[in-house]
């Protein structure tokens, strides 16, 4: 069983891999059958491709952890998103994600983004 500290560290490590663009190093953090509900996809590769597309469009994008809540095998994280504010605005989007941990790895995720959409 994964401890609370290990579960929190796992999610923070995933964010660190995103922020440092070390996407390949994140692969070992996910189970082979990782289920990404927002993308409607299974496996790490779909998420890796989504990360690559995001940073291609928003090269300065990074996520900054604001809150982490852990309950059993679930980790909820609220993060501010830097580097993708709408033109003329300093209001940053907020990313809310819930991860299920399985066998010490990220097994499943749900997520939603709140705030201004920089595409408009």
Automatic annotation (TrEMBL):
SUPFAM superfamilies: NTF2-like. It comes from the Bacteria. This is SnoaL-like domain-containing protein. The lineage of its organism: Bacteria, Bacillati, Actinomycetota, Actinomycetes, Streptosporangiales.
């Amino acid at each position: 069983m994964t401890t609370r500290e290990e579960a929190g560290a796992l999610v923070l490590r995933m964010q660190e891999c995103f922020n440092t663009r070390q996407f390949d190093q994140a692969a070992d953090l996910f189970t082979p059958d990782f289920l990404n509900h927002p993308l409607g996809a299974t496996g790490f590769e779909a998420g890796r491709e989504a990360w690559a597309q995001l940073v291609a469009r928003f090269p300065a994008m990074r996520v900054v952890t604001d809150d982490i809540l852990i309950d059993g095998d679930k980790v909820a994280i609220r993060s501010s998103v830097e580097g993708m504010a709408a033109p003329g605005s300093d209001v940053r989007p907020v990313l809310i994600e819930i991860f299920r941990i399985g066998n010490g790895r990220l097994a499943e995720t749900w997520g939603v983004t709140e705030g201004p959409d920089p595409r408009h």
